[in-house]
Write a structure and sequence with these properties.
Radius of gyration: 14 Å
Number of helices: 5
Strand content: 15-25%
Number of strands: 5
Distance between the termini: 10 Å
Structural class: alpha/beta
Order of helices and strands: EHHEHEHEEH
Largest sheet: 5 strands, parallel
Length: about 140
C-alpha cells in the first residue's frame, strides 16, 4: 500500500510559525515520524508540500497514476477556499483524509467551512501532528 501525504501553504514553517497553535514539531521532524509509522504499518509513504494551489492539484492527479492507494491531506488555508483542490480529490477517486493540526472549529469563523472535507472519507482536526498518524492508520484499516 502506498500513501501520499500532502501539505499545503505555510506548512513548511511548522515549528516556527505560531507554535502555540501549531506546536514545535518541524515539517522534517513530522515526515520522519510518519516514515516510522509507515514502516510500522508496512506501507510506503511519499510527501509533497506546496504553497501553490495548482501544484497541489497536479500532485493529486499524479497520485491516480503512480500507484497511490490513499491520501492524507492538510490543505491548510486552501481548505476554506479551493474548489480546485476539492475537484482534484473528487476526480481521482482515491480515499483521502483531511488533517488539521489545530482545531479549525475553535478558530475564526472563516476557518469553520471546509471545501475539501465533503470529498474526503473523514476529517481530523485539533489533535496536533498526531492527526496525520491517525489518518494513515485509518486509510490502512479501511483498505483491509
Amino acid at each position: 500500500m502506498k500513501l501520499l501525504i500532502i501539505n499545503g501553504p505555510n506548512i513548511q514553517l511548522l515549528g516556527r510559525r505560531d507554535p502555540g497553535t501549531y506546536g514545535s514539531t518541524t515539517l522534517p521532524q513530522l515526515e520522519d515520524r510518519l516514515r516510522e509509522v509507515a514502516k510500522e504499518l508496512g506501507v510506503e509513504c511519499a510527501f509533497f508540500q506546496s504553497n501553490h494551489e495548482g501544484s497541489i492539484c497536479d500532485r493529486i492527479a499524479e497520485a491516480a497514476a503512480d500507484g497511490t492507494d490513499g491520501i492524507v491531506i492538510n490543505p491548510a488555508a486552501y481548505t476554506h477556499t479551493s474548489i480546485a483542490i476539492r475537484d482534484a480529490l473528487d476526480g481521482v477517486g482515491l480515499p483521502a483524509v483531511e488533517v488539521h493540526i489545530s482545531n479549525i472549529h475553535k478558530r475564526e469563523e472563516f476557518r469553520h467551512k471546509s471545501m475539501t472535507a465533503p470529498v474526503c472519507i473523514g476529517q481530523i482536526a485539533g489533535l496536533g501532528t498526531m492527526g496525520y498518524e491517525l489518518a494513515m492508520r485509518a486509510l490502512v484499516e479501511r483498505a483491509h
